[in-house]
Amino acid sequence: MKFLRSIGALVLVAATVFAGGFLPAYADAARIKDIASLQAGRDNQLIGYGLVVGLQGSGDSLRSSPFTEQSMRAMLQNLGISTQGSQSNAKNLAAVMVTATLPPFASPGSRIDVNVSSLGDATSLRGGTLVMTSLSGADGQIYAVAQGAVIVSGFTAQGQAATLTEGITTSGRVPNGAIIERELPSHFKDSVNLVLQLRNADFSTAVRMADAVNTFAGQRYGGPIAEARDSQEVIVQKPKVADLTRLMAEIENLVVETDTPAKVVINERTGTIVIGADVKVSRVAVSYGTLTVQVTETPQIVQPEPFSRGVTAVQPETDIMAMKEGGPVAIVEGPDLRTLVAGLNNIGVKPDGIIAILQGIKSAGALQAELVLQ
């Protein structure tokens, strides 16, 4: 794959490369469960406020974070310990926000992971333990309770004159740290239809999904049951003799040929370029050149003559050199992804130059795709 070596950070995602060539078109086929989700089976976000204790002097400063001290006093009072008239300067606890995602159809007693993030001026949550924290949903109801040891991937090493930090030390995870206490209200079994939502909205994919379901239903139930409502939703009516759970299990494994719009995604910060498989470029001539200016300062020390009353002086000396590198004019025409990448490589520029070229081609109206800048 020579055209991949010279392009540097150019990333090709939409087209799959295998054994020196591209896979055929049917490689874009995918199961319905991989390209769509059930509307009745969506996730729900949970949030809570808690305390992490057991830190080794890396917690909140109680004077700088008064809410941490208030939370500590409230917790101790709930445990029957009076804290009136006492002050604490301990830095072994930190106030944190706890977040989690409640999966669909989760039952009471099952466990989920939680994320813990510092709220105050704590420098690290490493070695801490999250005390019992209730997690609420958007409706204000408590759905889970979290507690456990916080796992932090980052670390900090500090001395008198230097500090070394790697990763994030003020956030961590508690694997399986929350127990679900309340079941989400669900009427899945009572539904009369299934609503499938495409993760990437596309009319062609939605119609193909409905056709695949109707082909299966015609053989199994004797008639069509699916209809594409728009580019994102496909409605599947429940047959009278079908069980909804079994029907969903059968439908989600059907294979559909997916379709995606032509896009070019550019991240100028990292120099990453992602070109979709359907991107095409009309015939256009491209030339790329760069101007480099180098300024060198070499000050000279000038000494006075012997027995004179002069003083040592510094005489500035500046050398300016300009270099202009111009590439050949290349004809770029991309009826497919392979030809487009080969044409860009013929110009012989780095990824930042390719970004500028793609933007210019788009401005010229020759890029038959959507250009997304990140």
Contiguous uncertain segments of 5+ residues:
1-27
Instruction: Report mean pLDDT, rounded to a whole number.
Output: 79
Strand elements, count? 27
- SS field, number of helical segments: 7
Distance between the termini: 27 Å
Radius of gyration: 32 Å
- Going across the major beta sheet, what is the strand order? 6-7-8-13-10-9
Can you give the helix content as a percent range? 10-25%
The gross shape turns out to be flat
Largest sheet: 6 strands, antiparallel, barrel
Q: Output the structural class.
A: alpha+beta
**What fraction strand?**
35-45%
Q: How many independent structural domains?
A: 4
Pfam families: FlgI
GO molecular function: structural molecule activity
Protein name: Flagellar P-ring protein
Family: Belongs to the FlgI family.
Secondary structure blueprint with pairings:
Blueprint: H1 2-5, E1 10-11, E2 17-18, E3 21-22, E4 29-31, H2 32-35, E5 36-38, E6 44-53, H3 66-78, E7 93-102, E8 111-118, E9 129-136, E10 142-149, E11 155-158, E12 163-166, E13 171-180, E14 193-198, H4 203-220, E15 226-228, E16 233-237, H5 244-251, E17 255-257, E18 263-267, E19 272-275, E20 280-286, E21 289-297, E22 300-302, E23 313-315, E24 318-326, E25 330-334, H6 337-347, H7 351-363, E26 367-368, E27 370-373
Parallel strand pairs: 1-19, 18-27
Antiparallel strand pairs: 2-3, 4-17, 5-14, 6-7, 6-9, 7-8, 8-13, 9-10, 10-13, 11-12, 14-16, 15-16, 18-19, 20-25, 20-26, 21-24, 22-23
Pfam families: FlgI
Function: Assembles around the rod to form the L-ring and probably protects the motor/basal body from shearing forces during rotation.
Keywords: Bacterial flagellum, Cell projection, Cilium, Flagellum, Periplasm, Signal
